[in-house]
Specification:
alpha+beta, SH3 type barrels, 10-stranded antiparallel beta sheet, 10 strands, 43% helix
Amino acid sequence: MALVSADTKIAELLNELHQLIKQTQEERSRSEHNLLNIQKTHERMQTENKSKAYNESKGVIRFVNLICSTLNVLMSSCSASPYYRTKLRGLYTTAKADAEAECSILRRALDKIAEIKSLLEERRIAARMAGVYSDNDPPRKTMRRGVLMTLLQQSAMTLPLWIGKPGESPPPLCGAIPASSDYVAKQGDKVAARVKAVDGDEQWILAEVVSYNHSTNKYEVDDIDEEGKERHTLSRRRIIPLPQWKANPETDPEALFSKDQLVLALYPQTTCFYRALIHTPPHRPQDDYSVLFEDTSYADGYSPPLNVAQRYVVACKENKKK
């Protein structure tokens, strides 16, 4: 019954999302006319300024004045005639209002997408507990490794980008910003978990939260790469929540790990985290980190640069080797 209810709610949200997308396009089409007027107004101003500079200048003076006229176009709010200043002020006021209206619709659409993703995750967990599986989420004991790697890659690609309002700081779990001290990961969340390996050594693995016991302050997590039988009970200090948003390097560079910073990163095509140094942070929202994994088989102790998605790079809780 719960699965049917979730499906109904998801269908409703998808319809609402479709309507918001249509509204966005309508708003954008409506604002294009005003943007075109702004462009034409600047072109007329530039033409008039160039004409004036040409008629009033000769020789070197003309050359200097042409440069000045170009600068004047760029500083039109100061040099334009009262007519153009008034007209541009009105056009830009309208453009600002149009942009804010479109931004509001897009934020509502992003909220719908986040709600849909949350419901899909809840449905996945409920189906797994009920023993019902989909083709996209088979039981781990029957999942081929290639399928698992594809799912992990898709999870990294679909991690939402944090888009804050002007002056708003990125929240915890955005990029490199850690979770708050009282944060508790939810059922189904992916985390880096420090567990004991078969040989007795400890390693950081990619795991999924099963539950959290508030009386003991311990998590139960499943190894994402096991056959559904390896479950670990771990204290909070052995758990690192993964980012819930990607950080935008163009607007929030402070929310990214910096070059040469020590991190734990998921080694490509594995489900284990290893110590690494940031070689190159992302330059664009869609970019990955370039990292150097600690590797004693290389002369300098580090591997060649390898790409790792933001979702799978977390702060290292261990000190750097000396």
